[in-house]
Amino acid sequence: MTTATARPDASPSPIVPPLAQRPEVAQAIDTVIRAADDTTKDLVGARPARDGGKETLHAWLERAKAVRARGGYYPYVGSGRGRGALVELLDGSVKWDLINGIGVHMFGHGDAGMMRASMQASMSDVVMQGNLQFNADSVAFAEVLCAEAARASRLKHCFVTNSGCMANEAALKVCQQKTDGAPRVLAFSDCFMGRSVAMSQIGDEPAYRQGVALNVLVDYIPFYNPEMGERSIEMSLWHLKECIRRWPGQHACFAFELIQGEGGFNTAPREFHVALMSACREAGIPVWDDEVQTFGRTSSMFAYEALDLGEYIDVVTIGKMSQACACLYTEAMNPKAGLLSGTFSASVTAFHTGLSALQRMRDGGYYGAEGRIARLHAAFRTHAEALVKRHPERFPPIRTAFGRESRQFVGGTGGMMRLTPFGGDKERIGRLLQNLFEDGVIAFICGHGPHHLRFLPPIGVMEPKDFEPVFEILEKSLAQTT
Questions:
Q1: pTM higher than the cut 0.90
Q2: Whole-Å CA distances, 155 to 150, 256, 289, 315, 321
Q3: pLDDT tier at 14 (50, 70, 90 boundaries)?
Q4: Of 4, 93, 191, 398, whose CA is between 20 and 30 Å from 340?
């Protein structure tokens, strides 16, 4: 069995509270980190629940159901122990966590660097920071983002907030103010933007806006279809130009997902985005790049840099792996005073752990064609393609939205990985996910038909060899799924 190991500790954030700088406190932090490492050495692979553990977990699940009014997708309540890509639940079972809070835990569980930053943050004078009163670490966090963003774009300024959805709300407001309150928004079919009142209306999923008063006007443009190639670009560009012709001067922005997340980990070549962004520029429509899930997971920290699209981007939103979230924009998009604010920007812990994560991703050899992320994705594809070859009966042709057949069973890019068994059938993939969870792997679903297995592994700590036990479990779970 392959053993998951935590990555080496990273250098601490440069903004360390005075108390945490005292020698005796620093030594105490070192002691805690060593103890944490020692007490998780038994987490070396997936394992079943301990005797009596399921009853304990069930009791907590019932408590969660009572206060939340419904149960969760999985019977998941963590014990607070984890190591790398492995997490322990309250029943004592250990599972490979390949969804990581939908991409939040880039450095997995029990990471020494994140733990150190968190403990240092706990010694600050406050728990939460805001937009009226903030400490130096808030500034340092935004500076790193601005510096990285400016390497390949015109982005210059950063508004920090405490969720990806709120970052998206900020982006929409910036674009609306720039366009004098233009009421319409352009977005891709199958997009997901968040669950606020406005974002649930822009997202292309009817279930997420049931009972919501519809007051955001959205025009949907087809995302790139690899089966159609150049024809797909022509079709989407035609749809965009028709929307612009039909509603001249009425669009506040085009919300681009360069790589669709919930929509199916769909990707598109640079020329697809260039065609649409160029048409937006000609019509005076701001380009908003939503990278809340994509951020940090491609061959560059920002996906627009990986696709060489920086010159077209007016606004970008990021979150998840960064712990604190942000909306970045160019000088030309800089809003008037009063538009962007809020009581909370993020917690001190979010700033410290987020800054630690950004520095490690920037400096740790993760990016580029030979970076850690590229090597991890290559390992996933190797294992996935071998599985498809061994079990063709589990991978019938996929029926696409246009009625064509596809045999692209393995997809995604970088740290966003997908696999499509059972022809993309939602019900069977749902049963497979439950079997996977029981057998020791946590994954999720994406796509709106066809549907896919969705993996967001902790790319900050996971090693290519860790896919060996993961795919052993996946093969077993596939055989059990009818």
A1: yes
A2: 5, 16, 11, 7, 20
A3: low
A4: 191
